[in-house]
Design a protein that fits this description.
Blueprint: E1 3-10, H1 14-26, E2 29-36, H2 39-45, E3 52-56, H3 64-73, E4 80-84, H4 89-97, E5 102-105, H5 112-148, E6 153-158, E7 161-165, H6 167-173, H7 177-181, H8 195-206, E8 212-220, E9 226-238, E10 241-250, H9 252-279, H10 284-298, E11 304-311, E12 316-323, H11 327-330, E13 335-336, H12 340-348, E14 352-354, H13 357-363, H14 369-379, E15 386-393, E16 399-407, H15 414-489, H16 495-520, H17 523-527, H18 530-545, E17 548-554, H19 562-583, E18 587-595, E19 598-605, H20 612-620, H21 625-636, E20 640-646, E21 650-658
Parallel strand pairs: 1-2, 1-3, 3-4, 4-5, 17-18
Antiparallel strand pairs: 6-7, 6-10, 8-9, 9-10, 11-12, 11-16, 12-13, 14-15, 15-16, 18-19, 19-21, 20-21
């Protein structure tokens, strides 16, 4: 992008000025410029907003040296570059000594861009230098005030006593400044074991053996408390006598922090190893088990740990890994969003730490009785004193679960919380990657199964069609043929009877072809739409299946894209067929509605019900592809399919399709 540049050109030849502007544009400048020839015009155009002045050395009424003289008398810091047709080297050097930034010849204007860039950089450096000088003077003026109000203890030691102390030094050791100045020896502020070392440091500086010293020692406060201090001192003179001036800070808190930092570094080393191990985990379960085992190492106060992953199908948090509790009870837990501490953290999206049971009750969401019973079984009588729970956020910001830790021995602290949040960030990425890998693998497996099923289904349908054509329609046509030949040889009076029987056979053949066609794809679906096709199919299935059917559509004139209509019909067809075959329902309700740019298809029966998880496992092994086929139909159109069933109660299947932009 071109750099704006405000230019004043002192030149009597417009063409030369245009050449300068051309070169500036070639150097990626965007010049705004004026040309002057006289001193009066130059003074009128001279102002601090200018970035550069380009002046010809010789003009009839005005020249570069005059322009430079006027510029030097002003208070403006504007670089001036002499541009001339010819100029001697000595004269050029003299012009530069008088204040010109640079000079160049008109037949070498190709260097103009770089010369301007250099001049602008020199101007920037001058400006920076002036700013630093102003800041330095200001710092000098404030020095005394800063010393008196410094957060660092400052002192001067001379002849074994304090000659000066600032208020901060007195505060560090718990004295008043006057008490320190009247103290018999400054060594009284040093712990007995460190006095020889500190006295030697001061002696060597007083004797000019070493100019500076930087060391630490244990100090002694007025109240007897030992503190860690750090000193930086150097030799100076006060009233013609050698002295030591130094600064001192209390590093007791820093020392404690370093101890904690070393502990944290050790934990982080484990975390780094954990991160590498998570990436090599073979599947989600093994990765989460590994994660919990590492958490026990870095947060040893944790007695219980559970990792919940959100299941979008059931809209619940499902425990995928746990430690410290009764596994049989933990595995049965299904938390609703907002339920218990983990459900609440998942809902809010931020971490929570509780140190008492009262805090836990206040921050947790309401817990259902059945969930509370499972919690109590999982803890096996042990009471949790402190809880730590953090959300798992995917790289896209989606909430995918929680990590919950519980302690029966003592409270968690803020450091544990920070550490767990760091682990959760790594774990969420690993979990998401593992889930995506599993989904891709499962998708490939489903694709293979569906491809195999498609081939199998095609062959089955072909065999069925061949059998129908051969056994039913073929036999009818053969019988018609035989009747017609017999008619040719019949007496005139019996021809009509034979023709009537042939027509009846043709009618049966037509009915069989129509029924066969409807089984493959009902004509209503293409000619009248989804609603008409559903009315026909539900009524037809109710008749042959022996159940009461109820179909509701809202709005009644709903319009559905062809590919979505096919998916809805096939899902309904598969659902009703399975219900009749396995569930033996008395009633089936089919509901189709359009609401907020979403198409909902819901099929509910009161049949025997089934184990959805077991059916999914069968489908994943290729033994039950009806459910898999329905899910694939929904997903191919950007929709979802939710299947819920309870044994002895019935089954509900709901598909959702986005209609926006359809």
């Amino acid at each position: 992008m071109a750099l704006p540049l405000r230019v004043l050109i002192v030149e009597d030849r417009p063409c030369d000025a245009e050449l300068m502007i051309f070169e500036l544009r070639q150097a990626d400048f965007e010049p705004q410029w004026n040309r002057v020839e006289t001193e009066l015009d130059f003074v009128a155009q001279l102002n601090p907003s200018l970035d550069i002045i380009l002046a010809d050395f010789n003009l009839p009424q005005f020249d570069a040296r005059q322009a430079l003289s006027l510029l030097n008398k002003s208070s403006f810091d504007i670089p001036l570059i002499v541009v001339s047709g010819s100029i001697g080297e000595e004269l050029a050097i003299q012009v530069v000594q008088e204040g010109a930034t640079d000079y160049l010849l008109k037949d070498r204007l190709g260097r103009l861009g770089s010369a301007v860039q250099r001049a602008l950089e020199l101007k920037r450096l001058r400006s920076e230098k002036r700013r630093v000088e102003v800041a330095l003077r200001s710092a000098e003026n404030l020095f005394r005030n800063l010393v008196e109000h410094s957060l660092v203890g400052i002192h001067i030691i001379q002849e074994g006593k304090y000659a000066y102390v600032n208020p901060k030094l007195a505060e560090i050791f718990g004295y008043t400044p006057n008490e320190l100045l009247t103290m018999d020896s400054w060594l009284l502020l040093v712990a007995d074991s460190d006095r020889p070392l500190v006295a030697d440091h001061v002696r060597r500086r007083i004797g000019n053996e070493v100019p500076n010293a930087h060391y630490e020692f244990r100090g002694l406060r007025k109240d007897g408390v030992v503190i860690d201090v750090e000193v930086l001192g150097s030799r100076t003179e006060l009233n013609g006598k050698p002295a030591v001036i130094g600064s001192l800070i209390d590093i007791t808190d820093r020392r404690r922090a370093e101890v904690k930092l070393n502990q944290t570094a050790e934990r982080l080393g484990i975390l780094l190893m954990t991160s590498q191990e998570l990436g090599s985990a073979r599947n989600l379960e093994s990765m989460l088990d590994l994660l919990l085992s590492r958490l026990k190492e870095v947060i040893p106060v944790a007695d219980f740990g559970t990792i919940y992953i959100f299941d979008s199908q059931t809209e619940t948090l499902v425990p995928k890994a746990s430690t410290g509790g009764v596994q049989e009870a933990v595995q049965q837990i299904r938390l609703q969003v907002g339920e218990s501490l983990s459900g609440r953290v998942f809902q809010l999206g931020h971490s929570v730490i509780t140190r008492t049971s009262e805090e836990n009750d206040a921050l947790s969401g309401p817990v259902r009785p059945e969930t509370q019973q499972l919690f109590e079984k999982a803890r096996a009588g042990r009471q949790i004193q402190s809880n730590l729970c953090v959300p798992l956020h995917s790289p896209t910001g989606e909430n995918i679960g929680t990590i919950a830790l519980g302690s029966a021995r003592g409270p968690f602290n803020a450091e544990d919380l920070s550490l767990l949040e760091g682990i959760a960030a790594q774990a969420a990425i690993a979990i998401q990657e593992t889930k995506l890998f599993d989904e891709v693998s499962a998708g490939r497996q489903r694709l293979q199964l569906l491809s195999q099923q498609l081939i199998t289904t095609q062959e089955t349908e072909r065999r069925h069609l061949a059998r129908e054509l051969h056994d039913e329609i073929g036999q009818v046509l053969t019988a018609i043929k035989m009747h017609l030949r017999s008619t040719q040889r019949s007496e005139p009076g019996s021809v009509q009877s034979s023709l009537d029987e042939s027509v009846s056979m043709i009618d049966r053949a037509i009915d069989q072809v129509r029924n066969l066609s409807l089984k493959l794809r009902p004509a209503q679906l293409d000619e009248l739409g989804l609603v008409a096709a559903l009315h026909w199919f539900v009524k037809h299935q109710a008749k042959i299946g022996g159940f009461q059917a109820h179909l509701t559509v809202h709005p009644v004139d709903i319009e559905v894209p062809p590919e979505m209509a096919t998916a809805c019909f096939r899902i309904t067809q598969e659902s009703l067929t399975n219900a009749v075959r396995h569930g033996h329902p008395h009633e089936i309700h089919v509901n189709l509605r359009h609401e907020d740019d979403i198409l909902y298809l819901r099929i509910r029966d009161d049949g025997e019900g089934f184990d959805v998880d077991a059916a999914r496992q069968l489908a994943s092994r290729g033994k039950s592809l009806g459910m898999l086929g329905m899910q694939e139909r929904a997903q191919l159109l950007g929709g979802t399919l939710d299947i819920r069933s309870t044994k002895g109660v019935g089954t509900t299947i709901q598909a959702k399709f986005p209609l926006a932009g359809s």
